[in-house]
């Protein structure tokens, strides 16, 4: 299986997408839910979001430790839960959400490390 060489343009694209995704995830996590997610499980949404964040972070920062990226994303997920707890905007903080965030981030990081390589 050939792996994607993370050349400079791809690294910068992954980093830009990561910043956009982090900001979007934080805002979406705080605004009141419209219930438009349909029947999708809330924990699955958390895991999928952090899977994407983990993949982008790992691809954009390929030279960084996967453990360091995982810790960063865990702290980010914890900050979201704290912000939900502090605000009264119709969202609730749950430990299970943080667990789903961590699981998704871990899988995303591992997959990105398998699929990408340094040039």
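^ Assign residues to that structure.
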């Amino acid at each position: 299986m050939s792996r994607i060489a993370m050349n400079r343009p791809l690294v910068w694209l992954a980093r830009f997408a990561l910043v956009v995704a982090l900001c979007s995830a934080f805002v979406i996590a705080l605004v009141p839910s419209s219930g438009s997610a349909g029947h999708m499980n809330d924990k699955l949404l958390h895991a999928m979001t952090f899977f994407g964040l983990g993949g982008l972070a790992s691809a954009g920062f390929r030279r960084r430790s996967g453990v360091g990226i995982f810790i960063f994303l865990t702290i980010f997920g914890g900050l979201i839960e704290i912000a939900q707890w502090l605000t009264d905007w119709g969202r609730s903080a749950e430990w299970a959400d943080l667990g789903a965030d961590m699981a998704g981030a871990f899988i995303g990081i591992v997959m990105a490390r398998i699929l990408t390589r340094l040039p």
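The chain has a mean pLDDT of 93.
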